[in-house]
């Protein structure tokens, strides 16, 4: 081991004691040096050893809002996992989707066994502070690609959208519309890419008039569908990149005197708890929301125990066929 540490020290241009400090998660190393040494240690197959620290019994979870079924479901999954492990969950609801540094630092000051952030990623400075304090972090469904060294979880968004569109195509639909999420978010980009890939594989052109990029949500789904129908660009099927967008689309279709699925089929993405109770029950892509929260806590506790975890975990989606899709008339 001593020879290996000496080799790493020479490679990075630091002393052997500095390499040893980083390996043992000692705090008295600058953030820039820690980053360089950590990269070299990982390259040589060495894992940072966790600092000895007492347990608080608390796990901190941050989410942007609790207004929808998505948030409720993922938090419920995290809470169930925490309970299994004898931990108490401290839930923070903060409407800022980007800035979670204050939350991270308050948790560190108070004492915590780890942080789970839904969507938002702490800044590099805050992540370095967490590393120096030996506090693990897991980010669920980050808006953008998680930085190197940050453990993250998401669903197979591309594959789910591909499967949704392929289902519509297999029924015989060719004029397929897409109501996407906001295309500055990774999950929305992946879902739109999956839609495009399925159309391309089937030899079908994507009609720009049948693509709406306004974002997720019931209102967006409603407005997008109404605009298509008012403009005379009627599709035979709609892929909505969220269940809420699909609900809005169904409302707009009915207001135009049309029926689902007889006139227009609709498929969503999420499989939120209420989706099986819509009229008609919604065909959708099941995103493992509760499992995402559950696995986030499991990964957090593995990190705290000093065990190796994959930098990014993708949980599989699946097609759930109900009554809102059918062959075109």
Please tell me about this protein's structure:
By secondary structure, the protein is an alpha/beta fold. It folds into 3 domains: 2-43, no CATH class; 58-154 and 289-315, 3-Layer(aba) Sandwich (Rossmann fold), CATH 3.40.50; 157-287, Response regulator (Rossmann fold, 3-Layer(aba) Sandwich). Helix content is 43%, strand content 15%. It is built from 11 helices and 12 strands. The chain has helices spanning 2-12, 16-23, 31-43, 69-84, 101-110, 124-133, 157-170, 186-201, 218-230, 243-255, 289-304, and strands at residues 58-63, 88-93, 115-118, 137-140, 151-155, 176-179, 211-212, 237-240, 265-267, 284-286, 312-315, 318-320. The strands form 3 sheets. The chain has a 6-stranded parallel beta sheet with strand order 2-1-3-4-5-11, sandwiched between helices. Helix 2 (16-23) crosses helix 3, helix 5 (101-110) runs parallel beside helix 6 and helix 9 (218-230) packs parallel to helix 10 (243-255). The radius of gyration is 23 Å and the shape is elongated. The termini are far apart.
Shape: elongated
Using DSSP, what is the number of strands? 12
Total DSSP helices:
11
Arrangement of strands in the largest sheet: 2-1-3-4-5-11
**CATH architecture descriptor of the largest domain:** 3-Layer(aba) Sandwich
Structural class: alpha/beta
CATH topology grouping of the largest domain: Rossmann fold
**Average of per-residue pLDDT values:** 92
Radius of gyration: 23 Å
Extract low-pLDDT stretches: none
Q: How many structural domains in the coordinates?
A: 3
Largest β-sheet summary? 6 strands, parallel
The CATH homologous superfamily of the largest domain is called: Response regulator
State the share of residues found in helices, binned by percent.
40-55%
Q: Mind telling me the CATH class of the largest domain?
A: Alpha Beta
